[in-house]
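Next up, a specimen:

>
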Amino acid sequence: MRTDEQQLLETLASGDTVALLSKLVAVPSLVGHEGPLADVIGEFLEGIGFEVRIQGVDGSRKNILGTLRYAAPGPCLMFNGHLDTVAPTDGWTMDPYCATRREDRLYGLGALDMKGGIAAALAALEAIVRSKLPLRGTLMFSGVIDEEGYSDGARALLDAGLDGVDAVIIGEPCAGTRENPVPVLTPGKVLYRLTVQGVQAHGFRPQDGVNALEEAARMIASLDRLRQTEHETLGKGPVSTLKLSGGYEEYAVVVPDHCEAIISRMIAPGETSEGCRQDLEELIDSLHLAAETTVEMIPPYYAPLETNTDHDLFRAFEGAYRDEHGRAPTYGPSVIITDASVFDGLGGIPTLVCGPAGGGIHQADEYVDLASLAACARTYARTAARFLGPDTDRAPAHD
C-alpha cells in the first residue's frame, strides 16, 4: 500500500463513523421534513473545511451541498446521499430514533437506507481532509431530499447545473456482494393513476348502483394478468398497488360512486410509458367492468438504466474495493430505483451506487452491519484518493 493511502486509512480509523451515524439517526428526517438533518450535515461539512451552500427545493425543503477545491486542477467527484426516510412502521422493538448497538449491528430508522452511506462518506471526507493528501480537482458532498418520493432533490440539483461534476458516488446499501451487487442494470418505473366512476345507490340496494371500490378491486386482483415484457436479465418488473381511496368521508350507507388507485410498475429496457398505459387499458377492457375507468400516467417516471463501468471512477473503485475486501466487487442487475436514474440516466454523469450492508429496509428494526460500514468508509476514502490523486493523468470533463 502506498504510504499516503496508509496514512489516510490510519486517519480514518481514528474517527468514529458509528458515533456520526448515531447522530444522524437521532435526527428525524421523514419525507418532507429533511431540513434539520441538512443543517446537521452542513455544520459537519463546514467543520472540516468545506464551503457549504443550501439549495431551496419545493418551498421550505432544501438540499445541502459542500465543496472542497484543491489548488491543482483535476476532476470533480461528488458523494451523494438522500436525507429522507420513510415513516417508521409498526413493530419496532426499540426507539427508531435512538441508534441501538447490539453486537455487530447498529439499529435505527434510516441506519441502512441511507444514513449509513452518508456517515461513511462524511467520515471518508473528514479523513481525506485531515490526512492532507496532495489531491487535485474538487470533492463534493450533496445531501438531497425526496428520494423516497419523486427524487425532487436530485432533479433540482441537476436542473441547477452539475456540468462540473465528473462522477458521482451514491451511498445506497448495495454492498458489491453476490446477494447484493453493485447495480449496473436497473429497471425504470411508471406510476398509474386509475380513476373509477361508478353509480351511487343505497347500501341496502347495491344492485341499483355500480360500486366503484368493488370494480377497482376486480381490476387490482387481475394485475397478475397485465402484459409485461420479460427481460432476459431483469425478468418482469414488479407491479404494486400503493394506494386505494374511495367511499364515504363521514359514515353513510351508500354505494361509493368514485374510487382512485395508484399503481407502481417497474419497467424493463424496451418498455415505454405509453406502452404501459396501453397494457393497463387492455387489461381493463378485458374485464368488462361496469364502471367507467380512466388511466393516467403520473410522475415520477424513471427510464431503465444501464451503467457504463468503463470509466476512471469505476477503475479507481474496483482497485479500492479489491484492496479492502480481497476480491473484486460483484456487479449485477438489481430491482431498485435510486437517484442514479437522475444523475446518470438524465444527466449522463457516471454514477456508482455502493454502500454498506444490513437489513430491514422500510421495515421494523432496520440495521446496518458495522463491519460493512467501516469497510465502506475505507473504500470511499481509497476511491476518492485514487480518483483525485496527483499520479493520475485523467483530465476533468469541465474547464
